[in-house]
Amino acid sequence: MSAERTLVLIKPDGVSRALSGTILSRVEAKGYTLVDLKMVSATRAMLEEHYEEHVGKPFFEPLVEFMLSGPIVAAIFEGERVIEGFRSLAGATEPTAAAPGTIRGDLGRDWGLKVQQNLVHGSDSAESAQREMGIWFA
Ligand code: RTP
Ligand code: MG
């Protein structure tokens, strides 16, 4: 079986808080291989495609505004079961609820902030990974 790939984003809060290196090194330390990396200023069109399952939800507009608020680091990581493995490393969506030891649990802050400021994104399935890699590494 060929190694799986996932799309990881370090959201604008992670970049502005200077956590890009720390986050990438946690993923590398787990044993996943960094296969592509870039800094991107997202467009609304990219975000509407990336978050297509959330279009129309109450948090969609604030989420897009946040994702447009600064540069994003996009990465592709490869490894066995990396999709599930990265989501375990990232932790639960809300930083307060995310377990200690996870990226969001250790480094995320949602007090006084919106839940969208949770540092990272990781693809949630092989289909999502394929689709999202096409958006961010077109
Ligand atoms: P992600 O897609 O970023 O890896 O995060 P996730 O799977 O844990 O969360 P998901 O449900 O896919 O939501 C995507 C992003 O939308 C923001 N969000 N805000 N109620 C809210 O205000 C709310 N719910 C979700 C978060 O930034 C979440 O990561
Ligand atoms: Mg998601």
From TrEMBL:
<dbReference type="GO" id="GO:0004550">
    <property type="term" value="F:nucleoside diphosphate kinase activity"/>
</dbReference>
<feature type="binding site">
    <location>
        <position position="118"/>
    </location>
    <ligand>
        <name>ATP</name>
    </ligand>
</feature>
<keyword id="KW-0067">ATP-binding</keyword>
<keyword id="KW-0808">Transferase</keyword>
<feature type="active site" description="Pros-phosphohistidine intermediate">
    <location>
        <position position="121"/>
    </location>
</feature>
<keyword id="KW-0479">Metal-binding</keyword>
<dbReference type="InterPro" id="IPR036850">
    <property type="entry name" value="NDK-like_dom_sf"/>
</dbReference>
<dbReference type="InterPro" id="IPR001564">
    <property type="entry name" value="Nucleoside_diP_kinase"/>
</dbReference>
<feature type="binding site">
    <location>
        <position position="104"/>
    </location>
    <ligand>
        <name>ATP</name>
    </ligand>
</feature>
<comment type="similarity">
    <text>Belongs to the NDK family.</text>
</comment>
<comment type="function">
    <text>Major role in the synthesis of nucleoside triphosphates other than ATP. The ATP gamma phosphate is transferred to the NDP beta phosphate via a ping-pong mechanism, using a phosphorylated active-site intermediate.</text>
</comment>
<feature type="binding site">
    <location>
        <position position="93"/>
    </location>
    <ligand>
        <name>ATP</name>
    </ligand>
</feature>
<dbReference type="InterPro" id="IPR034907">
    <property type="entry name" value="NDK-like_dom"/>
</dbReference>
<protein>
    <recommendedName>
        <fullName>Nucleoside diphosphate kinase</fullName>
        <ecNumber>2.7.4.6</ecNumber>
    </recommendedName>
</protein>
<keyword id="KW-0418">Kinase</keyword>
<keyword id="KW-0546">Nucleotide metabolism</keyword>
<comment type="subunit">
    <text>Homotetramer.</text>
</comment>
<feature type="domain" description="Nucleoside diphosphate kinase-like">
    <location>
        <begin position="3"/>
        <end position="138"/>
    </location>
</feature>
<feature type="binding site">
    <location>
        <position position="87"/>
    </location>
    <ligand>
        <name>ATP</name>
    </ligand>
</feature>
<feature type="binding site">
    <location>
        <position position="11"/>
    </location>
    <ligand>
        <name>ATP</name>
    </ligand>
</feature>
<keyword id="KW-0547">Nucleotide-binding</keyword>
<keyword id="KW-0597">Phosphoprotein</keyword>
<dbReference type="Pfam" id="PF00334">
    <property type="entry name" value="NDK"/>
</dbReference>
<feature type="binding site">
    <location>
        <position position="59"/>
    </location>
    <ligand>
        <name>ATP</name>
    </ligand>
</feature>
<keyword id="KW-0460">Magnesium</keyword>
<keyword id="KW-0963">Cytoplasm</keyword>
